[in-house]
Amino acid sequence: MITREHRAPGRLPRPEAIHRGQQRLAALGAAVAAAVVTWALIEKVAGVDLRAPSFDGSAEGFDIGLGPVVLTSGLASLGGWGLLAVLERLTTRARGLWTAAAVPALVASLGGPMSGTGISGANRASLALLHVVVGAVLIPLLHRTTSAPSGAPAPGGGSTSYGEAA
To answer: What is the pLDDT along the chain (166 residues), one digit of tens a residue?
Structure first.
């Protein structure tokens, strides 16, 4: 079982903490990569000129290139990671609370593509797809990086965290 301990200054973090950080960084990278692949398929294969809706009443939304896709998916992923880290420090039920917050946050994020003016239905559907793809990659991967609540079995068997025996 993973227990929290305070480190003395100068001591290295425990291997479990390093491994968890690497897993979360990989989850962030996977979410951004999935967004980039999805964007490329939308733009290059489907031929949709991806644009964001306008919220100021103008007739045309602004172009969404690779940069905004990487930045937005990366920042959203960091936000999810940050919330998970805060919850882990505050409660032993971080896994469930985080998932209970992440899924509604994904649903709420769909409000952006579905509102505003100046974009086509294909743009709205494509933007919604980008949101769902990032969430579908990020939510399960980050969920798997946290320990089950005390007394609850961890996914995959009787271990209390990934890589440790009970």
So the answer is: 455 555 556 665 565 667 888 999 999 999 999 999 999 999 999 999 898 888 877 667 789 999 999 999 999 999 999 999 999 999 999 999 999 999 999 999 999 888 888 888 999 999 999 999 999 999 999 999 987 665 444 444 444 444 444 3
13 in helix, strand or coil? coil
- Total structural domains within the chain: 1
List phi, psi (to 5°) of 74.
Answer: -65, -45
- What pTM does this model have? 0.77
C-beta atoms surrounding 98 within 10 Å: 23
Query: Position 40: which residue type?
Result: A
Structure-block tokens of residue 114: 């579905």
- Classify residue 97: in a domain, yes or no: yes
Please provide residue 52's backbone torsions phi and psi, each rounded to the nearest 5 degrees.
Answer: -90, 150
> Is residue 152 in some structural domain?
no
DSSP string, 25-59: HHHHHHHHHHHHHHHHIIIIIS----EEPBSSS-S
Q: How many CB atoms lie within 10 A of CB 114?
A: 11
The range of the structural domain enclosing residue 78 comes to 19-53+60-143
Give the integer Cα–Cα distance in Å for 22 and 137. 16
